[in-house]
Amino acid sequence: MTLVVMEEKKTKVKRIFDSIAGRYDFLNHLLSFGFDFYWRKKALKLTGLNSESILLDVACGTGDVAIQAEKMGVEKIFGADFSHNMLKLFNAKSEWIKGKNIQMVAEFIPLKDESVTNITVAFGVRNFYNIQQAFNSFYRVLKPNGRATILEFRMPSNKIFKTLYKFYFKKILPVIGSFISGDKEAYHYLPSSVEEFDEKIKLPELLRNSGFKKIEIYNLTFGVTQVLIATR
User: What is the pTM (predicted TM-score) of this model?
Assistant: First the structure.
């Protein structure tokens, strides 16, 4: 990806998420039929968080992962996102979370080496402009035996279910999302990015390139989402 293309993607992603921030939570719950609650909770359970964890939630959005983690006993939580509007909503929803929320890109995490035990990214990796560089940053800031947990959409392997899924993602979701959010581009970009991402990006390979040795993969809800847990 050239520098110009990377800059264009950063600008586009920031504009989209700043634009839809106010309707983001409602549309997430509506368009996923409420499964997003289950997916986040399951991913956090699989990663084994506890009261001693130091969590950095990258592409944190409005804070749903952090809020769920706090309910599970995590006391030190930091949120990071490129969208200022998302972070404002995060702060409004979770004033009681210990830690701080910062505006940043995943490729350049402004934390010291080996400073957190866990990193989470829920439905955000496909929006990174340089995934390999972001994973290198993850590896750097994680403590030894720390875990990076990625929750991301994927295309189902079952042909019939895949056909139905693509129809919903390409024909129904954009119409509903565009109507409610008022941003036509956003809810055409988000579904199309999933298929392109699933076809072209091999997350386990990129994680290994960054130094992660142990990688666990879990498929959820007929394979429409996946959880990858990479241990440093």
Answer: 0.89
